[in-house]
Design brief:
Elements lengths: L18 E6 L6 H9 L1 E3 L18 E7 L1 E5 L9 E5 L5 E10 H11 L11 H6 L1 E3 L7 E8 L2 E7 L14 H13 L5 H10 L9 H14 L4 E3 L2
Parallel strand pairs: 1-9
Antiparallel strand pairs: 1-6, 2-10, 3-6, 4-5, 7-8, 8-9
Length: 233
């Protein structure tokens, strides 16, 4: 199995990088799901079509990573139904994630689609890289977070502006959970048992997705592979 990437907590040296590690902790841990944001398309189990990035190329590399903080599920996804995954970097714990090496322009376009905005406008990353956090709005994925560096390049992700305990938790849908589990398995860094225990303990999943139910999703993903995805074009 692979060892999760060593994250350097030092601040970035370049405030205008050409490439970044887009660090996903939710459905975009799965490359087939991420491809919908890059190439355009709709993943199996989702109801929303994504327009894609100006540059549709897949990540140059994808690495497993662990972030300090906690994962929780909240709000109601217009794409999947059920709760969305969010990251609280100020909570205690660890978050299993996958870092995708993409251009800064691709990161901007992925973030725009997650915010339900049209891709095409570059993000100014100077604030998040300087302060570690930048709030672009009060919506679900409108807060950028800098989580450190890998190989000298910044790890960037996005989440909600609120804390984990400030919002009602919502269980994720089966399709969303399958996408997340598939992505974590594909990272080849954590055992099925570790993934099962991790997901079942996340607020929103806990009490609604018991360990035996999550283990069933893990078994299905291992047996059938990633869910099929329809791409635009």
């Amino acid at each position: 199995m692979k060892t999760p990437a060593t994250v350097d907590p030092a601040p970035p040296g370049d405030l205008h990088p050409t490439h970044v590690w887009y660090t996903s902790y939710g459905s975009n841990t799965d490359l087939a799901r991420l491809a919908c944001y890059l190439r355009g398309g709709r993943p199996a189990g989702a109801v929303r079509e994504q327009p894609g990035c100006r540059d549709p190329g897949m990540p140059a590399r994808s690495l497993p990573a662990e972030l300090p903080g906690a994962l929780y599920f909240a709000t109601e996804s217009q794409v999947w139904g059920g709760g969305r995954a969010f990251y609280d970097p100020r909570a205690s714990g660890r978050v299993l994630a996958r870092a995708h090496l993409v251009s800064a322009a691709q990161f901007s376009d992925i973030a725009a689609q997650e915010m339900y905005r049209a891709p095409g406008e570059p993000l100014d990353l100077a604030e998040v890289l300087t302060r570690g956090r930048a709030t672009l709005g009060q919506g679900r994925y409108e807060t950028l977070v800098h989580a450190g560096r890998v190989d000298g390049l910044p790890l960037l992700t996005f989440t909600a502006p609120w804390r984990m305990d400030d919002v009602e938790h919502t269980p994720p849908s089966p399709a969303y959970l399958r996408c997340l589990v598939s992505g974590l398995l594909s990272a080849d860094a954590w055992s099925p048992e570790t993934i099962t225990a991790y997901v079942a303990a996340c607020p929103g999943a806990y009490g609604h997705w018991p360990a035996d139910a999550v283990a069933g999703v893990v078994r299905d993903c291992r047996a059938g592979g990633p869910a099929r995805t329809r791409h635009a074009g």
